[in-house]
Amino acid sequence: MTDEDEAASVRQLWSALGLPGVIDVHTHFMPKSVMDKVWNYFDSSGPLVGRHWPITYRADESRRVEMLRQFGVRGFTSLIYPHKPQMAAWLNQWAVEFARSTPDCLATATFYPEPDAADYVETAIRDGVRVFKAHIQVGRYEPNDPLLDRVWGLVEDAGVPVVVHCGSGPVPGEYTGPEPIRRLLRRYPRLRLIVAHMGMPEYAEFLDICESAADVRLDTTMAFTPFVEEQMPFPVSQLPRLRHLQDRILFGSDFPNIPYRYSDAMRSLTELPGVDDDWLRAVFYQNAATVFYPLE
Questions:
Q1: To the nearest 5 percent, what fractions of the chain are helix, strand and coil?
Q2: Contact 176, 184 (CB under 8 A)
Q3: How far apart are CA 56 and CA 62, in angstroms?
Q4: Any idea what the Cα angle at residue 18 is, between residues 16 and 20, rounded to 5°?
Q5: Which segments within the chain are labelled E, that is strand?
Q6: Rounded to 5 degrees, what angle do the CA atoms 55, 195, 42 make?
Q7: Cα–Cα distance list, 191 to 88, 105, 149, 244, 251 (Å)
Q8: What is the SS3 string spanning 215-233?
Q9: Domains of the chain: which residue ranges?
Q10: How would you classify the pairing of strands 105-106 and 193-195?
Q11: Which residues form the Amidohydrolase-related domain (predicted)?
Q12: pLDDT score for 296
C-alpha cells in the first residue's frame, strides 16, 4: 500500500462518519536521539516489549508530521517520557519548541519522581501545557512516590489531563496494574487521567476505575487490533461496557511505533461488535475535542 493509498483509506474511515478528521491523543514525537534509542529497543525485542515489534512509520520527524496531516489528524500529542532522573525537564524543553513549530500538536510535558519535579511541572503548567505523559512501566516508579505528591497536586489543580501507561501490558512492571492508580485517585480524586491502551491487560479493572471516577478516561491505543488480540484479547464479556462508557473513550494510535498500519488501528474499532456510528464519532473525534478543544 502506498502512502497515498493509506491516507485515502484513513480519510474514508472518518469522512464516512461525517467527521472533520481525527484527534489522536497517543502519538510520540521526541528528540531524534531519544526516538532512535526507542526504535533500537523495539528492534531488539527488549524485555519491556516482549515480542517482535517492527516500526511501521520509521521516518524523519517532518515526514511523520506530514503523514498525520495527510491522514486527516486534526490534533495529536508528542508523548515524551523519561526512564531516569534528570531527563524530564530536558524533554519538556524540547516538547515546548516542537509544539511551537507544530501548532496541531498539543503542548506536551512529562515528569519523573525527583526533587525538582514539581518545579518543572509548575513551569510547564504556567507555559500552557495541554497534556502530560506518565509512563509507569518504562519509568519503573510508583505513582504514589512522595516525590510526586506536589506534582499530582499541581496537575490536579490545573486540570491538565495525564495520559498514563499504568496497565501491565505488553509486559508487567513492578508498579503497573490498577491498584497503584486506585490509591492515587483516593488521594487526588480530581485527576484527569487518560489510561493508555484501555489499561491492557487489566481491561475490566480499569473499566471499573473509569466508571467510578468522573474524570478518568481510557484511550484505545493498540487495543482491539489483531496484534494485541493474539496475546491480550479484550474480554468479550466486557464489550457491552464500551457502549456505556462511550463518552469516556478516546482514540489513540501509538504512531509511529506501531507494527501495523494506522488504518488497521481505526478499522479494528469500526469492526467491534455492538458499537455504532455515534460511538465511533465520539471516540475518533468528539470526546477528545471536548477535553482538549472545549471552546472551539
A1: 50, 10, 40
A2: no
A3: 16
A4: 110
A5: 22-23, 73-77, 105-106, 108-110, 131-135, 162-165, 193-195, 217-219, 249-250
A6: 20
A7: 20, 22, 12, 21, 20
A8: CCEEECCCCCCHHHHCCCC
A9: 3-293
A10: unpaired
A11: 23-292
A12: 62
What is the pLDDT, as a whole number, of residue 48? 86
R_g over Cα of the chain: 18
H/E stretch holding 211: helix 203-212
Q: What is the pLDDT of residue 2?
A: 86
Residue type, 34: V
> C-alpha cell of 71?
491522514
Q: 3-state SS of 110-157?
A: ECCCCCCHHHHHHHHHHCCCCEEEEEHHHHCCCCCCHHHHHHHHHHHH
Predicted pLDDT at 50: 84
The answer to whether 269 and 224 have CB atoms below 8 angstroms apart is: yes
CA distance 61 to 139: 24
Which burial class, exposed, middle or buried, applies to 54 when counting CB atoms under 10 A from its CB (0-12, 13-18, 19+)?
Answer: exposed
Task: Summarize pLDDT for 13-35 with one digit per residue, the tens.
Answer: 999 999 999 999 999 999 999 99
What is the domain class of 3-293 according to CATH?
A: alpha beta
Residue 167, CA distances (Å) to 18, 210, 258 in order: 33, 13, 18
Query: Residues 80, 107: contact at Cβ < 8 Å?
Result: no
Q: Which residues of the chain are under the pLDDT cut of 50? A: none
